[in-house]
Amino acid sequence: MKNKDKILILDFGSQYTQLIARRVREIGVFSVVEPSSLSVDKIIEMNPSGIILSGGPETVTISSSQKVDKSLLEANIPILGICYGMQTIANELSGSVVTSNVREFGHAKISCVNQSVLFNNISFDSNKLDVWMSHGDKVDLLPKNFEIIASSKDCQIAGFQNEKLNIFGLQFHPEVTHTDQGKKILKNFIFEVCKCRKNWSTSDIIDSMVNSVQDKVKDEKVLLGLSGGVDSSVVAMLLHKAIKNNLICIFVDHGLLRLGEVDEVMSTFEALDIDIRLVDASELFLSKLSGVTDPEQKRKIIGNTFIDVFEIEANKIKDVDWLAQGTIYPDVIESSSDDHNSSVIKSHHNVGGLPDRMNLKLLEPIRELFKDEVRKIGAELNTPEHILLRHPFPGPGLGIRIMGDINKERIDILQKADKIFIDELKANNLYDSLSQAFVVYLPVKSVGVVGDERRYEDVLALRAIETVDFMTANWAHLPYDFIGKVSNRIVNEISSISRVVYDCTGKPPATIEWE
Ligand code: XMP
Questions:
Q1: Residue 173 a catalytic site member
Q2: pTM of the model as a whole
Q3: Which one is predicted more confidently, 339 or 436?
């Protein structure tokens, strides 16, 4: 995508950085996110049509915080600073920033003070616009030759510009939906100021990816670890379109999948004429996990065993040159982020890369896409809907949903209970409104009574959540009658379960999975 019109987003650590990048793409222009520390030389080499400086948690009022390089502001590239991004512009161009008396958080109203290209075709209601603010600092002195374009009650300089230099700052967040017409403001920056042309529609993306794969791979063979999840499935569809039978998929059954999943994935891809080979390694995984209760250790064992199994299978196939992976853009951004301080809560990247000794070239065709874009191109590539709309399923599978010891009996019970829950969600039209739903096997026993008989059996928890980005989540307020029905079915149909509970904890403070 080197020569395409693109907007570069420099990430100062805002929770909204990825949202800015997604908005730009929704508007139809390619966007990339890079750490705010990227050198000006590298930025110029990327040749962006415009730059957006994101918000961030720091304050420009201390010397140790990351600032925009002053020479970037002199490089003749259109720049829009949002929140912290605006403050760092002010700070570098001899304006000033102070900590405000009132921390503005949430809805605010701005009024337009001077005409700005950013406000073209924006309809103000009695010169007021609803926006979303989230800041403690504010610009209190304009840089030289800048003018105010917007003010709010608590923030006189809520927007500024120097139209000659094409540098703009907004204290509010145009990227969030709470800002009325925020997308139009971004559009004005992208099309009117940066003069970008549209280049990011679903068919553009597919064409460019198919061409790029064909150019790279030519008539060599590509191996793909297919899990049946959205990302690897869409990679399979894309590669199949690009290189047909030179794609070979390996599906490793680690024995910790959902009930019926192996057959479902195999029959789906076989029906699409994709070369998919099943490896049943369930006994190996189970024996390695025997007696292991620590969640992180489980993840490591499953991840490493997966790599071992995959490598053995790959070596059986002759003349393979490429290994394809379903890496997506949030993985790329997160692994290149500047922030070394954030603590590792869980090691999610269960397939942490295959060993170099395999000597395969890496192909990551969807590494520039966000999840919603993966789904969109997946739909256009005719990926079956049941694959595209399925909830995410963690790599270690049921292994991290059985608290404590993992054994065959527990896996069978959990698979049955999970199927009851998911079938009922689908039958009651609730599945698609949730982001993820599953059952967890708890390491406790509880007393129950069936007929006149006392039972002392195991307990399961139902978990259902709603989220946009899986970084935070709300527990789903499923109807009581529905939960009751699922609970009844589970305790009636699975004799070794005496009790079902519902998890009503958000993230934070809990995580989505229990381990
Ligand atoms: P948490 O539990 O951290 O989960 O709130 C966020 C999302 O990540 C999934 N998850 C994993 N995915 N390997 C994966 O591939 C893992 O080890 C793993 N742990 C959690 C989880 O299902 C949710 O969608």
A1: yes
A2: 0.83
A3: 436
Least confident window among 4-18, 346-360, 452-466, 472-486: 346-360
Q: Give the pLDDT confidence score for residue 471 in this predicted structure.
A: 82
396 closest CA partner among 502, 254, 493: 254
Distance from residue 256's CA to the centre of ligand 1 (Å)? 15
Residue 292 CA to ligand 1 centre (angstroms): 19
For residue 176, give the DSSP letter. S
pLDDT band at residue 332, thresholds of 50, 70 and 90?
confident
The one catalytic residue in 83, 155, 196, 249 is 83
Calculate the average pLDDT of the chain: 93
The number of beta carbons lying within 10 Å of the beta carbon of residue 455 is 17
Domains 202-388 and 401-502 share a fold: no
Q: Are 119 and 185 in contact (CB under 8 A)?
A: yes
92 C-alpha to ligand 1 centroid (Å) = 41
Domain ranges of the chain: 6-193, 202-388, 401-502
Span 405-460, pLDDT tens digits: 999 999 999 999 999 999 999 999 999 999 999 999 999 999 999 888 898 999 99
Catalytic-role residue among 58, 92, 104, 175: 175
Place of tokens 């039972």: 455
* Mean pLDDT of all residues in 196-216: 95
Fold of domain 401-502: GMP Synthetase; Chain A, domain 3 (3.30.300)
| Active-site residue, 58 included | no
3-state secondary structure of 206: helix
Active site residue 107: no
Closest C-alpha to ligand 1, atom 22: 394
Indicate the CATH number for domain 202-388: 3.40.50.620
* One-letter-per-residue 3-state SS of 408-434: HHHHHHHHHHHHHHHHHHHHCCCHHHC
Looking at the domain that runs over 6-193, which CATH code has it been given? 3.40.50.880
